[in-house]
Structure formats: C-alpha cells, structure tokens
Amino acid sequence: MSFVIPVPPVASVPVLDSEQRFPVHRIYCVGRNYADHAKEMGAEVNRTQPTFFLKPADAVVTDGRDVPYPSATADLHHEVEMVVALKSGGRNIPVDAALDHVFGYGVGLDLTRRDLQAVAKAKSLPWDVAKGFDASAPVSTLRPVHAGAHPQHATLSLLVNGEPRQNSDISEMIFNTAEIIHELSKLFELAPGDLIFTGTPAGVAALVRGDSFEATLGGVASLRGRIV
C-alpha cells in the first residue's frame, strides 16, 4: 500500500527492561475520579457514571524529554495520574475480565490549559482545546503486569521543583481500573495500544517555564521532566 503523503511516526512509550516499545493507539482520560479533586474543582462527586475525554496519541512526551509550554494559555495545570496500557480490547468487557486486557502500568501528567477549560465549562463547550493539545500527556516507562502485579494500593504523588503538590493513593479512585475499562468499553471498542489516564487527586496547580516535576506511582513507575 502506498500513501499520498509521508506516514506519520508511530507514537510510542518505553517499556521497562525492554528494547521494544508500546505503540499508542488512543489516549482515554477519566475526569473527576477522585472525590477531593472533584470538590476542589467545584463539581459534584458522581459515583454512577465516569466522565471521559480523549487526547491524541501523539500528545505523549516520553524518555524524559522537555515539555514545551503550550500556546494560547496563561494557566497551565498539572494533573498526576496512574496510566493503564491495554494489550487487547473489545466491547462491553465485563468487570471481572477487564484486568486480563492490561499490558502494564505507568504514571503520567494530564496537562490542562485551565483558563481555556474554564471558558469551555462556562459556555457548555467541549474540553478539546483545554485537554488535547500538543505534548499534553507526558508519560513514564511502562511496567508490564508480568514484572509486578495489578496495583490496588499505590501512592500517587507529584513534586514540582522538589516541593510536594499532589499526594494520594489509587485506592481513593471513585472508579477502579477494572470498572473504568468496563465503562469505556460500553462507549468505544477498546484496542491494543490504548492508554487510559485514570484521574487525578486534589492539589492541581499551575506550572510555569523552568519548573521541574517528578511524578511517582509508588513501586511501579516514576516520571521526571521540565517545562520549557
């Protein structure tokens, strides 16, 4: 098969102790999945239906590369999250079979143009420009399930310039990993290569040029980077 323009590079994420990489198909994100974050954003805690949005696959920033400060915003915010990588997919996946589809886990930042999101919320518009911009998804090396386990309790934390910003445990998620996969698969046909950012705890705040960050999912993954 030939194409009329050059084929774009495949977005990918490194894998622990491997020269092979994880190709990214789609990036799904869960909004308001920690009660304390929902409250700090002035939203109701919804335990009946998760909120989902997407980022483009090539929004990933990997291998410790610098993260460019995005255009059209004066209020870039960090949101540290556990990241789930899928090795297989499907539709209407049962909760009790959901974890069978997981390749591994990492930690990432759902970077957000908070000022643009505020405008979108006020006008009941989509969040796309606030969430799905270039380099909006820094993500760590993935740890395969066979190298550990499915984390049920793990500290999720973020330091900015060495100072603590966010700290919680993934057990505080309103919807756990299996439930997220189940709910997503009712809306989309999930596929190998999908990444799921599973929501952020309280403590989101601004990043500026020159800031360094260190995100950690305890015992699983860590991510370091710098805003330039």
**Helix and strand pattern:** EEEHEEEEEEHHEEEEHEEE
Trace the largest sheet across and list its strands: 4-3-14-7-8-11
Distance between the termini: 39 Å
Fraction of residues in helix: 10-25%
Main beta-sheet annotation: 6 strands, mixed
Rg to the nearest angstrom? 17 Å
Q: Count every helix, treating DSSP H or I runs of 4 or more residues as helices.
A: 4
Beta content = 25-35%
> SS-based structural class?
alpha+beta
Mean pLDDT: 96
Uncertain residue segments: none
**What gross morphology would you assign?**
globular
Number of strands: 16
Describe the structure.
The protein has 228 residues and is α+β, with helices and mostly antiparallel strands. It has helices at 35-40, 114-122, 128-131, 177-187; strands spanning 12-14, 21-23, 27-31, 51-55, 60-61, 76-77, 80-86, 102-109, 112-113, 137-138, 143-144, 155-160, 163-169, 195-197, 212-217, 221-226. A 6-stranded mixed β-sheet has the order 4-3-14-7-8-11, with helices on one face. A 4-stranded antiparallel β-sheet has the order 13-12-15-16, with no helix packed on it. Strands 1-2 form a two-stranded antiparallel sheet. The longest helix is centred in the C-terminal third of the chain and has 11 residues, at 177-187.
